[in-house]
Batch of 4 targets.
Target 1
Amino acid sequence: MTDTIIRDERRGDGGRARRQRMIAGTPQPGLPVRGLKGIVLLIACALVILPFLAVVSTSLADQQQVTEAGGYVLWPERPNLDAYRAILSGGVVSRALMVSIGITVAGTALSLTCVTLLAYSLSRAGSFLHKPILLTVLFTLFFTPGMIPTYLTVRQLGLLDSYWSLILPTMVGAFQVIIMRAFFQEIPGELVDAARIDGANELQILTRIVLPLSKAVIAVIGLFNAVAYWNAFFNAVLYINDTEKWPLQLVLRTYVVDNAAFGVDTADIAGTVMPPAQSLQMAILVISLVPIALVYPFLQRHFAKGMLIGAVKG
Amino acid sequence: MATELETTSAAGRDPRPGRWRRLGLGRGTGRGAGTRGGDGAGRTHGAGPAGAHGPRASRRVRFRRDRFLLLLGVPGLLVVLLFNYVPLIGNVIAFKDYQPYIGIWDSPWVGFDNFDVILNGDPAFVNALTNTLVISFVQIVVVFPVPIALALLLNSMLSERLKRVAQSILYLPHFMSWVVVVAIFQHMLGNAGLLNNFLRSHDWATLSIFGNPDMFLTLITSQVIWKDAGWGTIIFLAALSRVDMELYEASAVDGASRLRQLWHVTLPSIRGVIVLLLILKLGDVLTVGFEQILLQQQQVGADAAEVLDTYVYFNGVIGGNWGVSAAVGLVKGLVGVVLVLGANKVAHLLGERGVYSK
């Protein structure tokens, strides 16, 4: 249902652009104006792409080229994966990578489960305690409880230096509950009534009817949650003192932003020269970007509609 | 069909026809308008005699009916209560002399003592407040219009494909963490970064961008633009795609040039969205890029880079002045709510819709 609407909108949009172009009587922009627009857009895109190009290239470059260029290269002449081999052969980065993957996977799964269930239980107007619970959730959109009390709560719960402190506090976002609830409420009541007459219980209605019809919104919210967990930085600063439990973002800060010296155990890659410091730093950066790059195409297909509907409804 | 449902509900087995009706939380949009026929029927029915919502079904009946539904919501609700409401109550430490080893409840009350830094204008606090307001002001004046301009540019592109490609590229930085963005900026523009290496190799003067308090505001502003300007266009592009085509046609008949169309048709049509986002921005005036600034504060020092959030963090979590920090955080939160409500009121007075309508 949703898909059809989106597709229609898209087709309409393409049509609009063409129509706007051909509105009778409006003079077409001249070549200089069109050229200027193109150039502005090109510069904007280059400003985004060039840094990434430099980061990836430097991570692949060898010592000689890095030295010649004075630090960073825009294109690796003799690309090699030594830097990646060095940081992934155990040690700080590998461990942080595992921590981050674990937090992201577990956090996203738990978060989606809780948000979906809460949204579903709030999707029926007039059910028992519907209004008080809905208001309880909505109210959290208007205030943030504050850093200090939140920190003290987490400490009181004994979650300091526990992975749970990175998962639980941001697990259920009111905004996501509201968006998902709005989707559930769009599902025609006849479908649910029919299932009920066929003898389906609440759980069956949820898993067989409601969830399959809401795949798109679940995917969007899940992907956004995953990105948020992967990128979370300050929660780890607050709650994790034990460096063994550091997620990747903290390692990134220490070695790439604060430029702490990076000790690599070169024993595993005996016979090779230690890759240049910049290559190591850029390789850590690239590794932290890989998951984002992997989900980006999916995100992109969905976010326009997910965010839009969220923006309008919220 | 209707009678059948009525019979079942009369028998008390399923008194909930029409429960799927939309609760107009937002303002109902046109989404799915074409498929809503069945829903309308359900709504009429729900309002009829069999509509057993509200007072007619007793609490016990409704509880029995909905207990499983309630149960499903429990885990999520618990998390909300635990990490939103418990800390909210925990704000009482703003009025206490909090001693970690006694606990929140047994610590002595001190009234408004913790608010002295605000009331008497403690220099460190005033510095943090000033920096926050300056940064916010710059972000509203400089950063806020960028996505609007970019959206107008994208919207006016003749080639649909070019527009799509540009969008994919420009949205990308939004999904990077602040650590990544700061790292990239530092390695591109830092003293040993790409730009300065290039300048040095040509014997040109280098630019001291990082670690330079005078450049800090420029630096963080450009980082915000780099990261979120592209993403910010989404909502404006959506608004632009909803502008009534006939307005353009009518203005073309009246002989309007494209610039006049921009000024008299396009911008007025997206004014509501602009006002809405401006209100939300105003509510956040005391919150400026916390992670971003925390990451870069060391390099320029607290004079230039202390904002309210970092003040709360360093004073409270690091320095142990729990009560004072909580007081500052509490006031900051309250002011934020007041600002949103106030800005919304002003928007109503100006005839705009605002965040919520009455």
Note: Chain A has 15 helices and no strands.
Target 2
Amino acid sequence: MGRLLDNLRTAYYKIKFQYVLRNGSFGPGTVIRCRLEVKGPGRFRIGAGCRLEPGLFGDEHVTIYTHHPRALVAIGDNVTLRATRFGSSLRITVEDDAVLEAASIYDSDFHHLKAEMRNEANYEGDRQVLIARGCYIGLESQCAKGASLGEGAILLPAAIIGTKAVPAGAMVGGNPAMLMAGPRI
Amino acid sequence: MGYAHLLERRFIQVRRNPGRALRVMHGLVWGLILKSVFRVTNPNVKIGRQFRAYGRLRIRGPGRVIIGDRACVTKGFLRTPCILTHTPDSEVVLGDGCNLSGTRISSISSVVVGRDAVLASTTIADSLMIPAPDQEIDRQWQQRYVRKVRIGRHFWAGANSFVAGGAEVGDECVLGAGAVLLGGKEYPPCSLLMGNPARRIGEAR
């Protein structure tokens, strides 16, 4: 019964975003088990065999918000998203086999730093976010603009990471995020 | 004799503040309903006497959940209080008089909170990584990522704080709002913990 509902929901979102709105694409074998909320002028791409699940505690869903026509949220194959929130105005890349908990990932500040320029539409300070193969993003953590996580890196729960590069296999946590354990603990 | 005295005191309290008495009655009735629902649906849940509930409480999973006497459950910050257990061996034990408002607990091994704890909309997870529903939890994975959570009595956790696996907190500690308590450390009694990751910044009086 649950599987039937999931298949129906997946088919509904596929038809909606891939064929009617034409702003996203899903690979074969992707299952959507929660609400998928997509807003904005940008595009998204979800690879094959992904799983989009509701939050661990059952009351959240996956949201993909784009704020610019050039924005792209590219998600690789076999990625698990659990109520992850994306806010993109440039590019967010999630590579294969990553697991993302209920975290916020955004690649822009969305406003200019100077107060008098904050209402201007064109803000040119975006930096893309890269989450490499096999990463794990913990609960309630945030990846701000310019974050780049190496292969197999672990972002601990409630960590906040900004313009930083995390080496492959490292474990980072805290605010601002710092190295908690070296590669391959 | 003593019981009659207590009843008399209750009666005076009710006459002084009938609205509060009504609220307490409401909570007790809801608590009774929730308790009987859990008795039918999930035999691993044990809830003590005088359980008060205002709104929903979500308990999922095959593990044991024990809530002590005089517990109170409310909704906080639009979050439903939620207790999750991932394996049949996992357990969540909340002491007597604990106060949950929008608290979310996820347990793979064990989460133990002492008595009279006040937990605001906190997230308590005893694992750094959360397994997928169909993932097999083997011993190696568990050794690497899962640490037990032990919290002493009179613990107070502020809003939006986070307690991760491996936290050992003494009695009468206070965790500030938005703080993140990461594992691997022991915190002495009566400490005021703040920041991300949380450090002891003073004494809680």
Note: The radius of gyration of chain A is 16 Å.
Target 3
Amino acid sequence: MAPNYLAILPEISLAVLAFILLVIDLRLPQGRKTVLAGITAAGLAAVMVLTVLFARPGAAPESVWGGMLRHDTAAFVFRLIFLFGAAVTALFTIGWKQIEKRGEFYVLMVLSTLGMTLMGAAGDLIMLFLAIETASIPLYVMAGFMTGDDKSTESGFKYLLFGALTSSVMVYGFSLLYGFGGTTDIYKLAAAVGSGELPVLGLLGALVLTLAGFGFKIAAVPFHFWAPDVYEGAPTPVTAFLSTASKAAGFAVVARFMLATFPAEVLPQGLSVIALISVLSMTLGNAAALSQKNIKRMLAYSSIAHAGYVLMGVAAASLLGVTSVVYYLAVYLVTNLAAFGVVIIFFNTAGSDEIKDYAGLSRRSPALALALMLAFLSLAGVPPLGGFFAKILVFAAAVEAGLIWLAIAGVLNAILGLYYYLMVLKVIYLDRSEKDDQPVPVARPHAIALVVCLLLVVFLGTIFGPMYDWSVLAASGLF
Amino acid sequence: MNQTIWLTLILFFPTLAAAVVALLPRENNQLARRVAFVASLIPLALTLFLWFGFEAAPANAEGYKFVERYEWYAAINSSYHVGLDGLSMTMVLLTTLLTPLAILASFSIEKNVRAFMALFLFLETGMLGVFMSLDLLVFFVFWEIGLVPMYFLINQWGSEGGERELWGGLKVSARTYASFKFMIVTMAGSLGLLLAIQLLGVVNGTFDLPSIVTQWNALADSDTILGGWASVGTVKVWAFWAFVLAFAIKVPVWPFHTWLPDAHTEAPTAGSMILAGVLLKLGAYGFLRFVLPLYPEQSAQYAGVLAGLATMAIVMGALAAYGQQDFKRLVAYSSVNHMGFVVLGIAAAARAAGTLDANIAMNGAVLQMFNHGLSAAGMFFLVGVIYERLHTRDLNAFGGFFPRVPVYGGILIFTSMASLGLPGLNGFVSEFLVVRGAWAVFPGWTAISMLGLLFTGAYILKGIAKTLHGPVNEESAHHLSEMNARELWVMAPLMVLMLWLGVLPGWLLNVINNAMQALFG
Amino acid sequence: MAFLQFLNDWPVLSLITFLPAVGGMALLLIPGDRKDTIYKVALGLGAAVFLLSLLVYLGFEVEGARYQFIEKYNWLPQLGISYHVAVDGISAPLVLLTGIVMFTGVIISQRIDERPREFFAFLFLLATGVFGVFVALDMFALFFFYEIAVFPMYLLIAIWGWKQTREYAAMKLTMYLFIGSVVSLVGALAMYFSSGLKTFDMLALEGANFPPEFQILWFPFIFIGFAVLGGIFPFHNWSPDGHVAAPTAVSMFHAGVLMKLGAFAALRVGIMLLPEGAKFHLPWIILLTLVNVVYGAYIAMVQTDFKYVIGFSSVSHMGLVVMGFASLTPEGYIGAGVQMVSHGIMTALFFAVVGMIYDQTHTRELSKLGGMVQKMPFVTFAFIIGGLVSMGMPGLSGFVAEFPIFMGVWLSDKPWIAIVGAISIVITAAYIIRLIRRVFFGEFPAEFEGHVHDVKPSEKFALGLLTLVLILIGVLPGVIVPMVEAGVDHVFALLGGM
């Protein structure tokens, strides 16, 4: 079979984009480097266009490049999600002093995105490991990018340590699987796993070890410890990237891996593990978020909780379940990007991420306050915003799969979530500060990015059809 | 005859007039008074018109005349169904007669005249509605509606002075206390009535009185209703007591009378007139219209209790009246005393239904209702006349007024005598009939109540003596002036009727008797 | 009515649902300092909403189809979600109620001084949610609008509410309502999957014939979940706090309309779709409502804050609505249907009056108020009418509503509840009389002399409109009862003619 170059067109173009950025960075005078972010965003958008135009998979999933990659709708849709997340993140870096003038940052980001797109498509354990590392290693650097800042440094270091640790555990899990199945192709592993000759306990062990690596990417309990510190310390655009695109990539892997290697009919206990992780993540994430004083830490815990919600869809292991995962991730991506966008803009002016300093934001910038409100309400699951429908989908998937207890745990967690989101909104709208009369300016690129994200949030919350179709498309690629 | 609109016209004209009065200009009190007075004459004229045509008017199958029936609350089978028989005709006449007089009596009110007059006219609708309705639900509507204007009349225009202590040591003005007590006690009484009406409606599937009377009495005591929850016999007993309690509070029968002295005493003059003249009759009317027809067996069974309570009311009412130092309170307790006779008559009739004695007692009771309406209204008005001049009702502050105000004195004596039951005046006729009828049924109770009659004489004479005779109380007499023309006009119709009914009660008794025959024949 | 035939060709329900939200967004475009313009535009919008709701009400043919003004569009056909709206005999009056409360609420919000633009925008957004719930025939749409209705309350109370308790009350309210709605949501999803019809359309689900065990298992989730918003005991606690903390117009809307949302959704989703579950569970739920009715009234009696009295009275009166449902008799449902409207108007009136007095005296302590009749006779009159409605005085709407409810209870399997429940009538009378006497009569406190004046003509108009409805329903039950009856007939067709 001839190598399918179109299947890796996005990856090729991303590599090209990274190279172009490197070159431009070298040629640009120091004063003009601020255009890099725009170029990155434009480039990523161009990759999206290319992907849509030329890298569309056929209806039937196919393995390409010797089974290393899958060329299917799931990979396709996830790629678009990552690319969109990266593009918006690039826009948000504008104005971030330690970043906007340093081209290597954008190169790293594009490379990380490349890793993610590979994660979405990986069909082989080896490819999967490589993809995860390709995505992660640039992120370690990016998290510690503000070298003058202790917290950022600590953040990068912590992220690296955790990442290394979980990666090695995961690789150990991979090796077990290889030992069990004699193959590294995750689709072929299923046959070995399902043969019935292997001890369930051993399989579960391998699964848990593997999940350590995936859980690290999606920041699910109990692999979440890095998240609050890293989120807080990393430059906010990086945090945004971590909590959106990177997380989505993790889920792309989890969904594919669970369905392909440990389908319900083969190892039902596997899904129970996922359900358990789901409920732990939501509950601990939300509970910890309640008492946070720093908005980034709060969002970190909230993102742990959201990982829990998404895992409900994975635990359902049905077409609707995976559809809900994709829909949820899409919504979560745009919503969280909008939320972090506001945090970034606010930090640029106020130099603080403390929630109490947001007091009076509604007077300082009504539009920004409105944007944050919409984002938080969407995270909380209030209509007519995307989060509402996404939550309904994951709950529906859980109910459909008979996981009523999980659905109930989910809805109760939604209440907890609403509580802390509202607490922030309360500070924004109710509390006063001495700086009430100082406006918070919003730069044009930020405004554009915010408006695009928020429009998508509302769009995904009112007109579900298009994205739902895409989600079904993506989901069906995994079955 | 097809539907007429007379009753509706009489019933709602006062409400319409009330709305008009409420919208009159604020400054012109005299205009409000006059409009209200003229407006109140129109129902009277219409009633008289009906009264004279009453004999000739055709009756429907159930014996009601001028019947009107329209769909009202179709979902629960309640209709706006009104009609008159002799009993209600008499009561309607009493109401439409007393209302203009009471309004005339309140021309001296200066505070918020428009509101006062509007409430008063509205009250008339409430009272008339009770007498006219032939649907339990509609009846209840009017029964309760009457409370509201009365509450405000007492609460807002009641006597100025006085203070009462509530539980917890909170001090409130006497009129607040009295109005609150009036409202709560009567509402509490109505609550049982409400529940019993619901029960009747639920069991019978309609609220139409004539249909319920037929259906309800056709149920055997042993049948179970409410999905097997209770037997008809039990339900009837409970519902019977619920009705009795509500009406007994309104009459009031001893020991449910405690709201009355307070309410009467604190109410403005016109309020007391209507309260004693008409509102108390609502209770007695309820016994005749609802309790006896709906629960004949229970009524007969428990008539002894009722007669005993009535006797207590007669005796205790008289004794209590004698003990009062407040003229108005004295008159108020006299109402308890006199209404006791009404209940005694009703109890006797309930026990011996169908006999001649029962018929006589019943006629006496209804006539006594009418008569008490006249005399009590007159007495309260006369108390009001003095109060307006002296701003006190303390009998000890009175004395020796006769020479100063001979006309007033004469009228007071005349009215008191009517109230006392002096032969030749109206009170005698009705009380005689009641006693005559009850004698054969409850000889013991009747004998005791005759003793009560003795005390009646005592307190009436005390009132007259303390007011008109004895040493002149100079300080008070100084402020006293003779009754003016308006006040005379209030009393004149009452006195004419008292005398007329005392000498020739036939015209009224005929109507009453026909109705009683038809009802309990 | 015949001359309103043309409405059938209009998307009138969509219009009434989305006009408030769109209008509210448009309000945000007016510069914030032109408060007068903002008020006028809001007023116009409120009037338009009111007129539309009136058209819906008048255009509803009692003899006609069960559901009228139907509109149905695909929303997400893949999951069987459609935008399907219509009104029946129970919801049409509620639409009118919402219109009236909205309109009068806007009228009396002229005193809102802080950020009126946002205030009205949120208020209108709330209205969209409420209208949406009342007209939705699709379960998904119902939840969609339901949650839209819940959220703006938080900001309205938290930003414009009473300073002492607003943060606490707003949060408490939002938490309670969300818990209720998400619990119902799980039940709704279970219904969706269990029916096998792959549709959220409630008309289709009505015929789904869920197995009895399923209904018995899920009914409590759905019913109680929604009933939380109806203030059912023991989940009523949010409501008085919310009422008290909310600004006047929001209290009106909250107690007047929002609480009906809970009762209505409990009926539409709970009882109508799970009739067997309803028959199984309502006989014990009626005991909860009894606590609502009697205990709520008792608590109202011992309050010393004007607004708390009204707040707890709502708990008591809403208990009657659910009690009517729980009686499982047509009479009870008719009564409950009328009570929703009657209580809505009445309590809106109450809160409007409380607001008018508080705005001028800055106190709601009963012991500090008095003699208001001297300054505001018309307000006094309106409040007294409302009070009488609350007491169930015959001739007013409260009686028309409560009487059949009690009849229904007599016909239920626990007739004794009627007797116990009736105690609340006396208690209500006691606290209403106490309120009227303490606030409106007696001494006028000297400290208020000079800064308490009669209300504006516009406010009188608002009170007059509310009063008129209360009297009209009371005197002529025929203006509303046949319509409600038509809706109830349908409910009982589903319940299988008890």
Note: Chain A is about 75% helix and 0% strand.
Target 4
Amino acid sequence: MEPIQIVFLIGAALVLGSAVMVVTRRNLIHAALFLILTLSGVAMIFVLLEAFYWAVIQVVVYIGAIAILIIMAIMVTRNVTGDTVKPFNNMAVWAAMLSVVASGSLIWALSYWPAFDQTAPVADTGEYVIRLLGLELFSAEGYLIPTMIASVLLLAALIAAIKSAFPISQEEE
Amino acid sequence: MQFLEDPVLWIAEWLREVLLGWGASELVTNMTLNFLGAFVVGAMIMVIFILLTWIERKAAARFQDRIGPNRVGPFGLIQPIADAVKMLTKEDTRPKGADVVGYVLAPIVSVFSVLMTWAVVPFTQKWIGADLSVGVMYVAAAGSFGIVAVLLAGWSSNNKYSLIGAFRGVAQLISYEVPLFLSLLVPVFLARSMGVNDIITSQTAVLFAIPWLNIPIRGFFVLAAPLSVVIYFISSLAEVGRAPFDLIEAESELVAGYHVEYSGMKFGLFQAAEFLHSFTFAALMALMFFGGWQGPWVGTNNLTGWLLGGFYFMLKTFFFYMMVMWSRLTFPRIRIDQMMNLNWKFMVPVSLVLLMGMPLIDYGLRGQELWLKYLVLFLFNLIVGLIAFAWAARADRRVKTHTRVRFEGRPVAVMPQAPAAAEDETAG
Amino acid sequence: MIPLSWYLILAALLFGIGLFGVLARKNVIAILLGIELMLNAVNINLLAFWRYLTPGDVTAQIFTVMVFVVAAAEVAVGLALVISVWRKRDTAYADELDMLKW
């Protein structure tokens, strides 16, 4: 086994192990902290894919913003009895079976695909790709309109989040 | 290869030969050398921290018209060692009901987030841990672990004060990250690269030479974007949580903020993270806007390259660190609403205007002389700055004349009530 | 070298774990955590396809941009809704939010 494969397996074990902890932990804060571990592991996988830019963005956006936001929301909404209630609903067994079936059938279906065991071609994955990505995102021949729609979506989400999380004033009630 | 030309590379080559001579494979040798390099950089930064505590105490003393530590060693130079011994021998307490893993992990993550940054900092032209093509983004990523550490520490100590301190800390850190990285994007756009070393080398361009002395004036980005430097400096002060932005650990309100329950070496690690954070931001300021290792007579000659380059870099960094300390010891703490207003109503809009206006000017002046570009950019910064400050001063006056803080009776403790909605339901 | 299949299997398993989280957890925020896991699995897939099949083209990365944007928007709005519901009904469990049931 090559060393890079060992690194991958360590990263994959980190991702999957902490992901299991995310969905099974009773204490939500612990689940969110394990989510941070999962996200770091995914960033490591991105590094192995030579997508350095995305590894860094993963850390900035997911760990620096999303995970922090989730932890703060958990702290705000923590019930006193929150840690003792059973974390799963009655259909947990069926959900487990369904997700096993889902990922199993995904792998099974993909294994018939001819490019399944392909190895990576030699390619320039450095600064050139980031440059190309920037040009594509903002050129009219490329993906300008999706970018604009995405930015409008972000603006709408910002306004919606502020509006819906704002405490309702006494007069309105 | 001569030792004097590049000692680090010389030692590395020597070690490589020794390891290969012992029969280690290429991979093991490379990994060992990489780990060793990371260890050396990390250890060096921690040694600098020891020096920083001494500088801090000495400078604070001078600012307050005291003498400062002068008993232990010459000029009190061994004082940090005594401090460290005190830290290590203190009782390592842990509050009841604390989340053990989070409680122990928080100080480690806090220092880790600072040390990570130094992987992309070039000490000289060649001495850089990893010249990433996304260096500036990497710095941002490293900083986001610091927020996790604050939240982790505040939550896991199982203390109301530390939790409030953590909430405040997160609000402040996330808010001030916005202008910080918006102003760091200005050098990125001026250099057309996110690599730290690229940013420095693109500051070598000569604007003009002083006629008789033949001294070239290099195009440091501070000349093109002085307002960005100001915004960067203010938001980095807030980002490290030092006065005037030390609301995170406002002693009079929150006892000590998110690390109130920490003692001994765990507290020492938080302190190390705070000091090193300031030092790191000072270093980044030197790198991004003031040319990093560049200075007079830093030539292609290897000896002057590393000797003078490292010297200039450290000189600039310590100068900006002194500025951080100066503001810390001079300004009083601001209120939390002032802190938020300063960020969202002043610094974020100004840095957005800069980030949108400067590329437009740069595009309009494409193909022109470099000095003309820098001049126009400088004037643009100046005008934006003047307008912004005039507007802010006006808004500040308006606030002062129309609103007045009124004393509305002594705050009394009340029983926490159930939310209003739940009551309505039971009543209806 | 790592074959493409490893990444795909990893992504499929991560997606399955996320799906389980979404279907089985009671707390709304835990459901959001599951969605995050699923989106991460999608990102691994997209970047693996980019690296192994079309390294000269950035279309897959554009999709990754969109996934990131959607994830950020979804978390912001979702958590705002959770906090709003918490204020109104004092619960964050999906099975207790049954005002529309009769």
Note: Residues 126-166 of chain A form one domain.
